[in-house]
Write a structure and sequence with these properties.
The protein is α/β, with parallel strands linked by helices. Helix content is about 40%, strand content about 15%. The protein contains twelve helices and twelve strands. The strands form two sheets. The protein has a seven-stranded mixed beta sheet with strand order 1-7-6-5-4-2-3, sandwiched between helices. Helix 11 crosses helix 12. It is globular. The protein starts with 7 loop residues before the first helix and ends with a helix. It binds pyridoxal-5'-phosphate.
Length: about 350
């Protein structure tokens, strides 16, 4: 049965498996190899490995394009940024993953790129910044502000302006958002997050339905060498198998938690993009937010997100986070635990934080 006829919840389970042959393994095994016997498709392992192929086949089928996997989300981001010629302009969200912004700022400081920062949720402002740009970088929802972009509109206007449109779809996963189907040229994922889903690997992926772009991205990976480890690729595929059920549970938890948090004393704002598993809880200042992070017991204070376990972090504890992110903003990565336990721990920490 061709993959495209299957629903995404099925594809996460079925794609990237070896052929169904008697005595064959159900899962693509981990292939530890630096070289393969000459004469076939695989020769040197910086250019290919069957364990990567399983992950790439699955993510490609889900996003509707060709996937090139990388050693990290940042390696994927870097490979995509390298598609534009030196001297080009890139339209970039004012809030996005802080090191995507830092990478672009570094390129700008070195005189290699012009960076045009916009509010990615304001489509008119994004379009106004497009003339002459080579690339429009969309992150949606954004990390950690949780702004949501109109991908279909921005992809169409980027194309009309002669710019490539790229969507970092890490927070949405291929199950909640399919940017290529909405007209975008390239999708980027930090596979580290929800796709792998267990906080035990760092990996990235680029997916595009333009063969020429896929070829350039693949060439970049081979030359720069930020290749996935086979064990990491295996773990990511294993995590992907349960993405649909993890997402269903964690998303339901996130929506319910947003409602309960809004009713809690001391809460200035709860940001909920309405889908996905990440929320932002805004308290009055850094000290209040730090007290909550110190008081939780079940929630784990940690950076990163998208694991089965719930984690939280005050984002401005990083000096590199955008100054327009409130000092009291706590990013919540909602996991698959019981909602009542998650809510009790967080609401208890909020109440405790107010008495000191
Ligand atoms: C939206 C987003 N894109 C990219 C990255 C970078 O991915 P990695 O940490 O896998 O390099 C992150 C990491 O937090 C992220 O949140």
């Amino acid at each position: 049965m061709p993959e495209q006829r299957l629903r995404p919840e099925t594809v996460v389970v079925s794609a990237g498996r070896p052929p169904h042959v008697p005595s064959g393994p159900l899962n693509e095994p981990v292939t530890f190899a630096s070289a393969f016997v000459a004469g076939g498709d695989l020769e040197y392992a910086r250019y290919g490995n069957p364990s990567w192929t399983a992950l790439e086949d699955a993510l490609g089928a889900l996003e509707g394009g060709e996937c090139v996997s990388f050693a990290s989300g940042m390696a994927a981001v870097s490979a995509v940024v390298a598609l534009v010629e030196p001297g080009s302009a890139i339209v970039v969200p004012q809030h996005a993953y802080q090191h995507t912004l830092a990478l672009l700022d570094g390129e700008a400081a070195a005189g290699r790129l012009e960076v045009r920062r916009v509010d990615i949720a304001d489509a008119d402002a994004v379009e106004a910044a497009m003339p002459g740009a080579a690339m429009v970088w969309i992150e949606s929802p954004t990390n950690p502000a949780l702004e949501v972009a109109d991908i279909e509109r921005l992809a169409a206007s980027a194309r009309a302006a002669g710019a490539l449109s790229v969507v970092d779809s890490t927070f949405a996963t291929p199950l909640l958002q399919r940017p290529l189907g909405q007209g975008a040229d390239v999708v980027v994922h930090s596979v580290t997050k929800l796709i792998a889903g267990h906080s035990d690997v760092v990996l990235g992926a680029v997916v595009t339905d333009a063969p020429e772009l896929a070829e350039r991205i693949r060439h970049h990976r081979g030359m720069h060498g930020a290749i996935p480890g086979p064990m990491e690729a295996f773990l990511a595929v294993r995590g992907l198998r349960t993405l649909a059920v993890r997402l269903e549970r964690a998303s339901a938890n996130a929506r319910e938690l947003a409602v309960r948090l809004r009713a809690a004393p001391g809460v200035v704002e709860v940001r909920d993009p309405g889908f996905g598993t990440v929320l932002a809880l805004v308290l009055e200042d850094a000290a209040a937010a730090d007290r909550v992070v110190e008081r939780v017991r079940l929630w784990i204070p940690a950076t990163s997100l998208g694991g089965v376990e719930s984690t939280l972090e005050r984002r401005r504890r990083w000096a590199t986070e955008a100054p327009t992110i409130p000092e009291g903003l706590i990013r919540l990565s909602v996991g698959i635990e019981h909602i009542d336990d998650l809510a009790a721990d967080l609401l208890g920490a909020l109440a405790g934080a107010r008495v000191v």
